[in-house]
Amino acid sequence: MTRRKPFGERLHAAIDARGRLCVGIDPHPPLLRAWGLADDAAGVREFSLRVVEALGGRVAVFKPQSAFYERHGSAGVAALEETIAAARAADTLTLVDAKRGDIDSTMRAYADAYLADGSPLAGDAVTISPYLGFASLAPAVETALESGRGVFVLALTSNPEGGTVQRAQADGTTVAASMARAAARLNAAEVADGAPLGSVGLVVGATVPDLPDDVDLADVRGPLLAPGYGAQGARGAQLRALFGDAWGAVLPSTSREVLAAGPDAAGLRAAADSALADVTAA
Q1: Distance CA 155, CA 125 (A)
Q2: CA distances from 264 to 50, 193, 229, 258, 270 (A)
Q3: What pathway is this protein a component of (predicted)?
Q4: Mind listing the pLDDT tens digit for each residue in 191-202?
């Protein structure tokens, strides 16, 4: 078996080829209804595969939100597995938005599920939560780097209550800054070997009002997922201003703005093209 290239390198190549856009696959009930689909596992499967068929090979990354699949039990999880497989067949990276975080053997089990070779739930990367301590993520980071996959660590989320944790200080350093610095340390070896991006990314909400003074995102040298582009209000110029010198690593993520243009494939493509044009203009 040919060894998979590191995720950061593969993501950089995908952005070069298709532009910096991540499309979320969020089959929540209102969208299913708008598409004329049932709110069940079969509807979720049909919704997801239509998105992949319309946009596979046209955008850099798909981001299926696992919660919308899990709510339908085992059949919903099977639909997530099929969505990941379809994206792989379409030669499009997948970031599974699972936001897992735990300690010891439980975190190892999550890593096996979402990052290990042979698991049907393993895409190319997964979102993880560090709020049991960054070191608790070690099993996920190790598994990701061993398998050529990536992780995106929650750092600065756009929900109002997130700041009470992420902007809190310990020994004069914000929690967000400590997460960014830990990611930077992990990316240093890959970047030193010539990788354009490391494989340990951060999640930084596109609509956060500002960055804490001690957060240097350019120093992370890994991908920066920016959810909240589009329907939640952020546009390309706003992202460009927020991320500054780190712009080259930013991956804007949009869901509703593109998905609301379905179920027609041409509508989905037009909406994705419009979003990409706005981001590219920035």
Answers
A1: 16
A2: 9, 44, 22, 11, 10
A3: Pyrimidine metabolism; UMP biosynthesis via de novo pathway; UMP from orotate: step 2/2
A4: 998 999 999 999
CA triple 138-144-146, angle to 5 deg = 100
Contact 68, 44 (CB under 8 A): yes
Q: How far apart are CA 128 and CA 112, in angstroms?
A: 13
Enzyme catalytic residues: 99
**Domains, in order of start, for the chain:** 7-277 (3.20.20.70)
Q: In sequence order, what are the residues at sequence separation of 6 or more whose Cβ sits closer than 8 angstroms to the Cβ of residue 43?
A: 27, 32, 37
| Helices 41-55, 73-89: crossing angle, 10 deg rounding | 10
The CA distance from 266 to 209, in Å, is 34
DSSP state of 254: E
Instruction: Find the radius of gyration of the CA atoms of the chain.
Output: 18
Alpha-carbon torsion angle 268, 269, 274, 280, nearest 10: 130
Q: How far, in Å, CA of 243 to CA of 163, rounded?
A: 18
228-280 pLDDT, tens digit per residue, is 988 777 888 899 999 999 999 999 999 999 999 999 999 999 999 999 999 99
